[in-house]
Amino acid sequence: MTPASPLPFAEQPLPAWRRAVLKVGSSLLAGEGEGLSPRHALNLAQFVSSSIAAGREVVIVSSGAVAAGRGLLHRKPQAGAAMAERQALAALGQAQLIALWQRFFDRPVAQVLLTHDDLRNRRRYLNARATLQELLALGALPVVNENDTVSVDELKLGDNDNLAAVVAALVDADALFIATDIDGFYTANPRTQVGAQPILDVEALTPEFFAMAGGAGSGVGTGGMHTKLEAAAKAAAAGIETFLFNGTQAGTVSALARGALIGTRFRPAQNRLAARKYWLRNVPVEAGAIVVDAGAANAMGQKGASLLPGGVTTAEGDFRRGDMVELVLRDDAGERRIARGVSQYSAVDIRRIARRHSREIEGILGYTYGENVVHRDDLVLL
């Protein structure tokens, strides 16, 4: 069968963004023979550098460790390779992957290895978020990858597409850029279906769109168009826009730097703040509560402030760091639920630091997770 000639995508304006996650698949990093190649990574790195120079922040989610490990051992990809072999290849190749990215930047590149289990567990989620935010504050470039060496169920089809969407929500990104080896999303597989039409803008990902998606497009990566739609749907649920583009085309990548998209735009159903507040309002709360005084209640309600330990009178129950708990005001008028939020400290720790200044936390506990008991970004008023 003669491959179909894909129809071109028209250029469209890229909306403004402040912080983004860029997902780069194995197909863009693998060499013609074995190992990794800088051919397409260089253009993507230039987009990242120009974005940072413009005052934006970028986190890269990069595949390629397994492919890099194969290159070191001169092994060809094999269907049905044993899990232990793939994990060993990932361990060998991870250093090569980070070295590839570091060569393009004059700022430090930080390796961050995660599994989906890290992000499902709320306490580990908070720790990962704090680390990534601190790396950005330090001016480093985080490069995130699935921790393939210890993953079992997580090392599977298209995992890094979905991981990138979760990381975008983790760091409160405005945008998720997915670099792939196809121009964008089509009504059918443009490599095999003559007349497949490019789709420039997707308002909402319905089952009909998923039915259009095919399987993996190369023998190097593990993801296909279906997993990219899954990632776009996850990002949309968090209020984050997704932009799918061809990372092998230098003109397409350079267009991003000047504020233009040649690819597909997936819009969220609601803005990022509304999506987060919805989650905060509806996730189940743990037993117990943080009891606050009138001053703290007023600061949170009228000024949008975080909850500091000085405004806490006590904590009830046995909840842990990262749990969703209710914030309660008790005064002469009785008891009122005023808010709910993700606690940065356990109930035991809060009882020890209640009524104390934030700068005393480390001296009392021997460690600190920051000055806030509940950060305003993790809090919603009732």
Automatic annotation (TrEMBL):
<keyword id="KW-0067">ATP-binding</keyword>
<dbReference type="GO" id="GO:0004349">
    <property type="term" value="F:glutamate 5-kinase activity"/>
</dbReference>
<keyword id="KW-0418">Kinase</keyword>
<dbReference type="Pfam" id="PF01472">
    <property type="entry name" value="PUA"/>
</dbReference>
<protein>
    <recommendedName>
        <fullName>Glutamate 5-kinase</fullName>
        <ecNumber>2.7.2.11</ecNumber>
    </recommendedName>
</protein>
<dbReference type="InterPro" id="IPR005715">
    <property type="entry name" value="Glu_5kinase/COase_Synthase"/>
</dbReference>
<dbReference type="InterPro" id="IPR036393">
    <property type="entry name" value="AceGlu_kinase-like_sf"/>
</dbReference>
<feature type="binding site">
    <location>
        <begin position="180"/>
        <end position="181"/>
    </location>
    <ligand>
        <name>ATP</name>
    </ligand>
</feature>
<feature type="domain" description="PUA">
    <location>
        <begin position="288"/>
        <end position="374"/>
    </location>
</feature>
<comment type="function">
    <text>Catalyzes the transfer of a phosphate group to glutamate to form L-glutamate 5-phosphate.</text>
</comment>
<keyword id="KW-0641">Proline biosynthesis</keyword>
<dbReference type="InterPro" id="IPR002478">
    <property type="entry name" value="PUA"/>
</dbReference>
<dbReference type="Pfam" id="PF00696">
    <property type="entry name" value="AA_kinase"/>
</dbReference>
<dbReference type="GO" id="GO:0003723">
    <property type="term" value="F:RNA binding"/>
</dbReference>
<feature type="binding site">
    <location>
        <position position="160"/>
    </location>
    <ligand>
        <name>substrate</name>
    </ligand>
</feature>
<feature type="binding site">
    <location>
        <position position="148"/>
    </location>
    <ligand>
        <name>substrate</name>
    </ligand>
</feature>
<keyword id="KW-0963">Cytoplasm</keyword>
<keyword id="KW-0028">Amino-acid biosynthesis</keyword>
<comment type="pathway">
    <text>Amino-acid biosynthesis; L-proline biosynthesis; L-glutamate 5-semialdehyde from L-glutamate: step 1/2.</text>
</comment>
<feature type="binding site">
    <location>
        <position position="23"/>
    </location>
    <ligand>
        <name>ATP</name>
    </ligand>
</feature>
<dbReference type="InterPro" id="IPR015947">
    <property type="entry name" value="PUA-like_sf"/>
</dbReference>
<dbReference type="InterPro" id="IPR011529">
    <property type="entry name" value="Glu_5kinase"/>
</dbReference>
<dbReference type="GO" id="GO:0005829">
    <property type="term" value="C:cytosol"/>
</dbReference>
<dbReference type="InterPro" id="IPR001057">
    <property type="entry name" value="Glu/AcGlu_kinase"/>
</dbReference>
<dbReference type="GO" id="GO:0055129">
    <property type="term" value="P:L-proline biosynthetic process"/>
</dbReference>
<keyword id="KW-0808">Transferase</keyword>
<keyword id="KW-0547">Nucleotide-binding</keyword>
<dbReference type="InterPro" id="IPR019797">
    <property type="entry name" value="Glutamate_5-kinase_CS"/>
</dbReference>
<dbReference type="InterPro" id="IPR036974">
    <property type="entry name" value="PUA_sf"/>
</dbReference>
<feature type="binding site">
    <location>
        <position position="63"/>
    </location>
    <ligand>
        <name>substrate</name>
    </ligand>
</feature>
<comment type="similarity">
    <text>Belongs to the glutamate 5-kinase family.</text>
</comment>
<dbReference type="InterPro" id="IPR001048">
    <property type="entry name" value="Asp/Glu/Uridylate_kinase"/>
</dbReference>
<dbReference type="GO" id="GO:0005524">
    <property type="term" value="F:ATP binding"/>
</dbReference>
<feature type="binding site">
    <location>
        <begin position="222"/>
        <end position="228"/>
    </location>
    <ligand>
        <name>ATP</name>
    </ligand>
</feature>
